[in-house]
Every structure is written in structure tokens, then in C-alpha cells.
């Protein structure tokens, strides 16, 4: 057997074992969202649109009546209404009916939101974080917020981050030891871990003037890095749409190269495999890591990318070449190629594989084994509410797992919630395939990249 | 019959990539100024120094030096264009279209340099100057195709030209050019708008005398160069740099068949008045295609997503310092959101960077000229006196025609600021009880160019669509940035003659329909 054939058989072995380890046996993460609405939404594009528009507007509604008015007018745009919807529409005819409908709608959305959002603020999130830690799962907390359009909002967001770092560092210090989560071949790993978005730290990100947002965000991010260093926490900078990639990546790499950060904190960036030029971005990251030797290696979180539709639409509207892969298999194949490069780049970097795709994850595990890495030498990351089963299966298999846990109120959470819901009712989503009961062998098949 | 690939918009540069930004910066470095702009009639050029355009951000930097056309020169230009009309009108539409497409190619090869010129001459920031060049190219491509659809004898007749046919008679409707078209262009889309109006006239077989704005003769020169390089005969397109006097001479010349005008309301109304009173020796009624100002309102309902509304409002009101006819001037916001919106808008404005147009970081460039600066400052003073200015205003460079972007609230209902077009970075915000009240206020305005609505309720959206008088209504997005072929642009009421630049029926204003009915019965036989 050649290396690739043996890798494939390793992936099947690892993947099948992982699948068996899923807590809810059929391994259907969407079943947990017991809402029939979601099942319906996945099948019916109009209904899906209505549901998302409703979820999106819930926090802006001023009363139950207002909620009901929105709900019925979204549903009113659906051509063929299932009987349950017709009943809902009829409820909209009376005031009492609207109150009931509004209350039910809001409760449904709140219920959904609670699957993805662990608390209104970091303090409220602690019980969930403690439980995860006890189960052998680390976390990265993400503070949801409204868009930052003013300097005051950026300051407020930075202050919330600072508060979160304090709270997390304090709480995690009290927790019991979890050796797998606290050390890898490169040394100790921080317990407290916060993910931040640069777009929340400055209102001045301009695609055509990246330096401007960098200058404005730098002091706020620098202060957070200092604080993370003091507290021994990890700070991860999320990646957003391509419009801000240059600003975000340069900013982070430049700040980390400042002498005061040579011996800390632990910090990380995100690499998006859906971008066609992501291999070159990895070159940039590697070159920077070579140049700036830091006590704690830069963590690179490999993702596919959360703004696929946005990137495609934006490029089409402007007549630009689409910057993301347009075939899912190309994106998945690139994810695997980048996984291999990242794993081979250790110990210059630390690697976090963030995916709910059993194949992508199994590939990373098998590749790590092939390279002689210990199980704890690569981290797996999942999103709270979507990747819980996978996370538990990975933890049960002795792998290092971190759950990405959004924190925030309903208003702030809606944009996040809509993105997650969209992702999971999308046709080309691994989770959707899994939910529809696609056989495990097929789920684990190698992505066939198009010839290029 | 000529067939062309379907129209697509010229893509703007992907300026989020550093390599694309470098192209523009190189274009600026290679720009040789000042340009010398002649009165250019046929092959005759008269240079002069009577008009000087300068960089609004550095008024001592001269961008173009132009001759000022005299009324006699205006008449000479019209006479030449009139003499050339027959031949150009008789040129097959396919050849006319091909000339426009070559002009588009000429511009495409010089995109960076043309954008750089607009940056310098009109202080139009990079993203918008680049878009201006693209729009100019779009107009050439779009109207070339439109003329083919309308006039190509071998192609299927356009829908409007399809006539009922009965035995023994042959009916045909053709669209023929009207004659000489005087194009009177503004400076705020210094390449796109003159190119658009000129291209529409030329494509359909008219000859043109183009009078660019006195603030932007350099850009006007490039437009004419492009068309001539593309193969439009010199006599069919004259360049007439000049001021009001030249415009007035064109307007009152009885040989001008069509006036295509984009600019201020007083001038537009004056043109309409003149045209409405034909002289005794007139042989044709002058048609006026006029695009004038607006007082553009954005409604923000209680269910709007402010995260989206705020950046869109800021773009609409302050990009290019509010100097677009589509720019937002008034926000009418549901009272429940008023305070939050005002606070966040004010904070966002405080972060805007006021600076020279050639810096990619600039949000708000200088306004076009000293007079404009004084005008906006005057309105800001009224706002401070009769209402409240909620923006501290970002810092403003000392030299150049800069004004701080301003948001004003609490103005009395009869305030001039809620009626008059300011054409600068001044936005007013007023609370409304609900969308219906907002619609009443909008309906009370005599102008109706663009409008905006932020709402997430489909019923509200429909209600506003049904009641809105404006020519271009934008839902949940900025009110500026209309694209050729996608958002045909133009206002209603006193904002314009209801024409839609970049739309399919625009060319109809430059032609007249002629119907020929031929009896095909001869001695009882249909031949
Ligand atoms: C812990 C964690 C942190 C994350 N942080 C970030 C972040 O900072 N920035 C960010 O952008 N994303 C982030 N993501 C989201 C991530 O990018 C993916 O959107 C998500 O995880 C789905 O990918 P998957 O591998 O799990 O599932 P899969 O179902 O295998 O992949 C779905 C993904 O494939 C891509 N895709 C879909 N259709 C096509 C197509 N036709 N052609 C090509 N590609 C297609 C899209 O990226 C889509 O999200 C994070 C995810 C996790 C788990």
C-alpha cells in the first residue's frame, strides 16, 4: 500500500471509531434541535428564509403584537403553506392570537439561541464552562456584540473583553487539573482562552485602507494582549470576511512581533481554507513565525470559513473573480492539504483543527499519527451547540478538544444565530448530510478536488 | 446585424487588494498636469487661460487650464454639429455603436489615469473615481447596445415599434435621431455623466456639443478625446469648455434639438423655461432631458437593524462629502430608535477622516470649491442656531475647501434645512411617530429623486413602495451608487424630467419616432 492508500484506510478506521463514539448514537446533531421548524426549513427554501428573517428581527420587535405582525408577514410570503403555518396565520387575526403567537415565536427563538449561546455574560457562562472542563473539554469564549460603529463602542467592547479575561482566568484557576488540556509538546497551554474580532475593536476597518483600522485597533488589542500575558490567558483573533483579512492578519502578526510580547501571551490567528489563496496566506504566517520566535508558538486555527455566501455574492455583484472555492470538494481538499502543512510546521506553530466534518477531522487525526505526533499535539475545536457530540467523541477518544462558546444577550446573538442556522441548513454542509443519515463510509470518502 | 455579448458592468477595482491600490497610485504619479483644454470644434482648437480648474484639496495646484467659450463659439459649434448631423445620422447604427465601444476600450486602457484625473480635478476619492470611470465605460457599452436594439433595421423591431399589420398595408415605425444635442454636464460625476449623456445622443445618431462643468474641463477633454479616438467624426462631437454664458447660448440656439442637462434645479428650470418658448424662427421644439437635485430621505423604522442602517446612512450622506444628487440629506427615524440612532451616528461621524481625495484613508474629501464650502458652512450655522448639531466633527485640514461632516437634529418643521438641497456633508435627523408620518413628510416635498427605507417587515416595505414618489427607492441599503443597467437612475417631480439614465428607455429621449405606412395594394393585388 502506498502512503495515500494507507492514509485513507487510517482515516476510515479513525473516522469510524469516532463515529461510534458519538453520544447520541445515530450521531445526528440536528436532532437535538428538536424544533420541527428546522427540519421543515432544511427542506423548503421559502420557509427557511421566513424563519431566518424572523429570528433576525426578534430582538428589534417592541411587543408581542409587533413580533406576531412580523411573523405573519414573513409567513405570508410563502406560497404553499403547510397546515401548521396556516393555523399560525389565522392566529394573527386577533389580538389574543397575536399575543400567543408572538410569545411562542419569541420563546422558540430564545430556545434555539440557548443551544448556541452559553450565557448573557462570562459570569453566567461559568457553569457551562466548568462542566465542559470537567468533561475534558477546554473552551474559547467569544463575546457577541452589536456591530462597532463608534470609538465608544470599540472601547466598550475592549472593556468587556478585559472583564472576560479576568473572570475566565479567575474561574479556571479554581478548576481541577486536566493534563491533556494543559500541556503539549511545546509546553504549557493556558486554561483561559478568549476569541476576539478586530471588527469589534475598531469602527474603522476599510477594505481599501487596511492601515487605518490597524492603527485604530492596535492600542485596544495591545492592551488585551498585555492583560492576557499577565493573566496567563490565551487570546485568539478570529478571521472575518476577506474585506478585512489584510488588516487583521498584519495587525496581529505585527503586534506579536513587538518585543514586549516575545515571552507571552499565547495567541492565535485563523486560516480560512475556502480562500483560493489561503496557501499563500499560510506562507505569510509561516514566514512571520520564523522571524518572530516567541516563547509560546503561534496557534493557527484552521477553518473552512464562515462567510462563503457573502464572499460569493460580493464578488458576483462587483464582477470580481470569486475568491473562495466554488466546489465544496475543492475546499475540503484544500483544508486537508493545509492540515498537512500545518502539522508539519510544528513546533514552529501550534495547530487547531476547527471543523465538524468527520472526514476533515479524521484526516487530521490520521495525518498526525502518520507524522508521529502524540494525540495531544493537535487541538480540535468545535462550536458550542453544533459540534457538541463530535467534541465529546473526540474527548472520549483521548484527543484535545476546545469548544467555542459564544456569550452575549439576545440582541447581540441574533446575527451569530442566523449564521449558524444558515450553515446547518445549507445543502452542502457536512452536518446536514450527517443529519440525513448519509452512510458513514460515504461521509468519510476523500474529497475529490477538481483538476487545476 | 451586429450582435454583441450581453451588457455587463465594468468591474470596479478590487481595492481590498494592495496590488490594485498600487495601480491607482501609479496612475496618479504618472499624471501630467495641468491639462490644456481648448474650445474644440471640428479640427479647430482654440486654447486659452480663462478657466482654471484646481485641486479642491490644494487650491494652488492647477489641474486644467481651459479656454472659455464665447456665445459666438457656442453658435459655431452648433452650426458645425448641425452640418455634420446628416452624415452621422446616416452612418449605420452598427458603425456608430462600434465607435462607442472603441471609446470604451480607450477608457479601459486608461482607467488608472482617468480615475487619477477625477481625484485631482474634483477631489473625488479613489473608490468613487474608479467607479466613475467604470460608469462612463458602462454608459458607452450600454447605449451602444441600446441603439442597436432600437435602430438596427435588420434586428427585430423593439417592442414599442411593433405595429398592427393588416393585408394591403405595410406599417413601420422607426426611431430617427433628432439633430444637435447640447450636453450640459456637472462636475460631480465628471467622467460618467458627460459620457453618458453624450453617448446616448451619439449612439442614436445625433451630433453633440458638450459643455463640461467649469470645475471639470479636464475630465470633459478626456471624454471628447475618447470618443474621437473611438472614431466619432470630429464635427460630430465638439468640446465647449465654458461657463453659464456658453450654456445659455446653447439653450437659446434654435438649431439645438435636444438639451441633455444634469445639474442644479435653478439652471434646469431655466433651461426648461427657455425651451418651452420657441422662438419665432424655430423649426423644431427643443426637448430637455433634465436631471436636477433632490432632498433625499431615508426612513428608519422601529424594526430596522441599526448595525446595517448606520454604515449605509453614513455612506449615503458623507461619501464624496455628500456631493451626489442621490446623497441622503434627511433621516426620518421612528421615535423609539431616534436617540440610539443619533448617538451612534454622531459617534460614527466623529470617526470619519476628512482629508485629501488621493488618500485611500479619506472618508470625506473637500467640497468642490470655496463657494460650496461657504454654502455648507452657512447651512451648518443655521442648524446650530435653530436646532442642535450633535457631531463634534472630526478635524478638518486647514487649506483646501474642507468642511466638517455635520449631523443636525431638533430643527423646526419649516426649517430651510429640511427643504433645500445643501449638496454637502450635512445630514438632518428627525423623529417620526411611524412610517406613515414619514411618508407624509416626504410626500410634501416638491422633489423626489432617491429615497431609502430600513425595515425588516415585508408589509412595511410594500407600503412604502406603494406610496413613495421618488425615482429611485432603496430598501435596506445605501441610497447612492446606482449602476448602469441595474438601477436606471433619475428623479421625479422637480427633480427631473423622469428620464432614467442607464435604463432601457433613456435613448427614446434622443430620437423621434417616424411612422411610414405604405399601401401595398395595386389594382386589387397585394404586391
Ligand atoms: C471552533 C471554531 C472556530 C471558528 N472560527 C472561525 C473564524 O474565525 N472565521 C471563520 O471564517 N470561520 C470560523 N469557523 C467556522 C468555519 O469556518 C465553518 O464555517 C464551519 O465550521 C463549517 O465547516 P465544517 O468543516 O465544520 O463543515 P463542512 O460542512 O465540511 O463545510 C462547510 C463549509 O464549507 C465551505 N463551503 C460550503 N459550500 C461550498 C462550496 N460550494 N464550495 C466551496 N466551499 C464551500 C464553507 O466554508 C462552509 O462553511 C469556526 C468554526 C469552529 C468550529
UniProtKB/TrEMBL annotation, chain A:
**InterPro entries cross-referenced by the UniProt entry:** FAD-linked_oxidoreductase-like, Proline_DH_dom, Proline_oxidase, PutA_N
Q: Which UniProt keywords apply?
A: Oxidoreductase
Please verify whether the record's keywords include Oxidoreductase: yes
GO molecular function terms here?
A: FAD binding; L-glutamate gamma-semialdehyde dehydrogenase activity; proline dehydrogenase activity
- Pfam families, per this entry? Pro_dh (PF01619), PutA_N (PF18083)
UniProt key word Protein biosynthesis:
no
In short, the EC number is 1.2.1.88, 1.5.5.2
Gene Ontology terms: biological process: L-proline catabolic process to L-glutamate
Q: Where is the Proline utilization A N-terminal domain positioned along the sequence?
A: 8-116
Q: Which residues form the Proline dehydrogenase domain?
A: 128-432
Name of the protein in its database record: Proline dehydrogenase / Delta-1-pyrroline-5-carboxylate dehydrogenase
Amino acid at each position: 500500500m502506498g502512503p495515500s492508500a494507507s492514509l485513507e484506510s487510517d482515516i476510515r478506521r479513525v473516522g469510524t471509531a469516532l463515529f461510534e463514539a458519538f453520544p447520541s448514537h445515530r450521531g445526528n446533531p440536528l436532532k437535538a434541535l428538536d424544533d420541527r421548524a428546522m427540519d421543515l426549513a432544511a427542506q423548503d427554501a421559502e420557509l427557511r428564509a421566513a424563519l431566518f428573517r424572523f429570528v433576525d428581527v426578534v430582538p428589534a420587535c417592541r411587543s408581542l403584537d409587533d413580533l406576531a405582525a412580523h411573523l405573519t408577514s414573513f409567513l405570508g410570503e410563502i406560497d404553499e403553506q403547510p397546515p401548521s403555518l396556516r393555523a399560525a396565520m389565522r392566529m394573527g387575526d386577533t389580538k389574543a392570537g397575536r399575543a400567543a403567537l408572538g410569545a411562542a415565536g419569541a420563546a422558540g427563538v430564545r430556545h434555539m439561541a440557548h443551544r448556541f449561546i452559553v450565557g448573557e455574560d462570562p459570569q453566567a457562562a461559568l457553569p457551562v464552562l466548568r462542566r465542559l472542563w470537567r468533561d475534558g473539554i477546554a473552551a474559547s469564549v467569544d463575546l457577541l456584540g452589536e456591530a462597532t460603529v463608534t470609538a465608544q463602542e470599540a472601547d466598550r467592547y475592549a472593556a468587556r473583553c478585559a472583564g472576560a479575561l479576568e473572570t475566565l482566568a479567575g474561574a479556571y484557576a479554581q478548576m481541577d487539573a486536566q493534563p491533556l488540556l494543559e500541556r503539549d509538546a511545546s509546553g504549557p497551554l493556558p486554561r483561559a482562552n478568549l476569541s476576539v474580532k478586530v471588527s469589534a475593536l475598531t469602527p474603522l476597518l476599510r477594505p481599501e485602507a487596511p492601515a487605518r483600522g490597524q492603527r485604530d485597533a492596535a492600542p485596544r488589542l495591545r492592551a488585551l494582549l498585555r492583560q492576557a500575558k499577565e493573566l496567563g490567558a490565551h487570546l485568539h483573533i478570529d478571521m472575518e470576511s476577506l474585506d478585512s483579512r489584510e488588516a487583521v492578519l498584519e495587525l496581529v502578526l505585527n503586534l506579536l512581533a513587538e518585543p514586549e510580547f516575545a515571552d507571552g501571551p499565547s495567541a492565535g490567528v485563523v486560516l480560512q481554507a475556502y480562500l483560493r489563496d489561503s496557501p499563500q496566506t499560510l506562507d505569510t504566517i509561516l514566514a512571520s513565525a520564523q522571524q518572530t520566535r516567541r516563547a509560546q508558538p503561534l496557534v493557527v486555527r484552521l477553518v473552512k470559513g464562515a462567510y462563503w455566501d457573502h464572499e460569493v455574492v460580493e464578488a458576483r455583484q462587483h464582477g470580481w473573480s470569486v475568491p473562495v472555492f466554488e466546489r465544496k470538494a475543492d475546499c475540503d481538499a484544500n483544508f486537508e492539504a493545509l492540515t498537512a502543512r500545518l502539522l508539519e510546521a510544528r513546533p514552529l506553530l501550534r495547530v487547531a483543527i476547527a471543523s465538524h466534518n468527520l472526514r476533515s477531522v479524521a484526516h487530521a487525526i490520521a495525518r498526525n499519527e502518520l507524522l508521529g505526533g502524540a494525540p495531544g499535539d493537535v487541538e480540535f475545536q468545535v462550536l458550542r451547540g453544533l459540534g457538541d457530540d463530535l467534541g465529546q467523541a473526540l474527548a472520549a477518544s483521548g484527543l484535545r478538544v476546545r469548544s467555542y462558546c459564544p456569550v452575549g444577550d439576545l440582541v447581540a446573538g441574533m446575527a451569530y444565530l442566523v449564521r449558524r442556522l444558515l450553515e446547518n441548513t445549507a445543502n452542502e454542509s457536512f452536518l446536514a448530510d450527517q443529519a440525513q443519515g448519509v452512510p458513514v463510509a460515504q461521509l468519510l470518502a476523500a474529497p475529490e478536488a477538481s483538476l487545476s | 446585424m451586429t450582435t454583441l455579448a450581453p451588457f455587463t458592468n465594468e468591474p470596479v477595482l478590487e481595492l481590498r487588494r494592495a496590488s490594485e491600490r498600487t495601480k491607482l497610485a501609479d496612475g496618479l504619479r504618472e499624471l501630467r498636469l495641468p491639462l490644456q483644454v481648448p474650445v474644440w470644434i471640428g479640427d479647430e482648437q482654440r486654447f486659452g487661460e480663462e478657466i482654471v480648474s484646481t485641486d479642491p484639496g490644494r487650491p494652488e495646484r492647477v489641474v486644467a487650464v481651459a479656454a472659455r467659450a464665447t456665445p459666438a463659439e457656442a453658435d459655431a459649434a452648433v452650426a458645425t454639429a448641425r452640418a455634420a448631423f446628416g452624415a452621422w445620422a446616416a452612418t449605420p447604427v452598427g458603425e456608430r455603436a462600434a465607435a462607442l465601444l472603441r471609446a470604451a476600450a480607450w477608457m479601459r486602457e486608461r482607467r488608472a489615469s482617468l480615475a487619477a484625473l477625477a481625484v485631482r480635478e474634483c477631489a473625488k476619492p479613489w473608490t468613487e473615481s474608479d467607479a466613475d470611470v467604470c460608469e462612463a465605460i458602462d454608459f458607452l457599452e450600454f447605449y451602444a447596445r441600446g441603439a442597436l436594439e432600437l435602430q438596427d433595421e435588420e434586428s427585430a423591431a423593439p417592442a414599442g415599434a411593433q405595429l398592427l399589420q393588416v393585408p394591403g398595408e405595410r406599417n413601420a415605425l422607426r426611431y430617427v435621431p433628432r439633430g444637435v444635442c447640447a450636453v450640459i454636464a456637472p462636475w460631480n460625476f465628471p467622467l460618467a455623466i458627460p459620457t453618458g449623456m453624450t453617448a446616448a445622443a451619439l449612439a442614436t445618431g445625433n451630433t453633440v456639443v458638450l459643455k463640461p462643468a467649469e470645475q471639470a474641463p479636464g475630465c470633459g477633454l478626456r471624454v471628447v478625446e475618447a470618443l474621437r479616438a473611438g472614431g466619432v467624426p470630429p464635427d460630430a462631437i465638439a468640446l465647449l469648455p465654458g461657463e453659464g454664458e456658453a450654456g445659455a447660448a446653447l439653450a437659446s440656439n434654435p438649431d439645438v434639438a435636444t438639451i441633455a442637462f444634469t445639474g442644479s434645479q435653478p439652471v434646469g428650470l431655466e433651461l426648461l423655461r427657455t425651451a418651452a418658448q420657441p422662438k419665432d424662427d424655430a423649426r423644431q421644439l427643443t426637448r430637455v432631458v433634465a436631471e436636477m437635485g433632490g432632498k433625499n430621505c431615508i426612513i428608519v423604522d422601529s424594526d430596522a437593524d441599526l448595525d446595517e442602517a448606520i454604515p449605509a446612512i453614513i455612506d449615503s450622506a458623507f461619501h464624496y462629502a455628500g456631493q451626489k444628487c442621490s446623497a441622503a440629506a434627511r433621516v426620518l427615524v421612528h421615535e423609539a430608535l431616534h436617540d440610539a440612532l443619533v448617538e451612534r451616528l454622531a459617534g460614527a461621524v466623529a470617526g470619519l477622516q476628512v482629508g485629501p481625495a488621493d488618500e485611500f484613508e479619506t472618508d470625506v474629501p473637500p467640497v468642490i470649491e470655496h463657494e460650496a464650502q461657504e454654502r455648507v458652512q452657512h447651512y451648518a450655522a443655521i442648524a446650530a442656531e435653530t436646532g442642535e448639531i450633535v457631531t463634534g466633527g472630526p478635524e478638518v485640514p486647514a487649506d483646501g475647501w474642507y468642511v466638517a461632516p455635520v449631523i443636525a437634529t431638533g430643527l423646526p418643521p419649516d426649517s430651510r434645512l429640511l427643504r433645500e438641497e445643501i449638496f454637502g456633508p450635512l445630514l438632518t435627523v428627525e423623529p417620526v411617530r411611524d412610517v406613515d408620518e414619514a411618508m407624509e413628510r416626504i410626500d410634501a416635498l416638491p422633489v423626489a429623486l432617491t429615497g431609502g427605507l430600513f425595515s425588516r417587515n415585508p408589509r412595511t416595505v410594500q407600503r412604502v413602495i406603494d406610496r413613495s414618489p421618488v425615482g429611485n427607492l432603496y430598501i435596506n441599503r445605501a441610497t447612492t451608487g446606482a449602476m448602469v443597467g441595474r438601477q436606471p437612475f433619475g428623479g421625479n417631480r422637480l427633480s427631473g424630467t423622469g428620464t432614467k439614465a442607464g435604463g432601457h428607455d433613456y435613448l427614446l429621449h434622443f430620437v423621434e419616432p417616424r411612422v411610414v405606412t405604405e399601401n401595398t395594394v395595386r389594382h386589387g393585388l397585394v404586391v
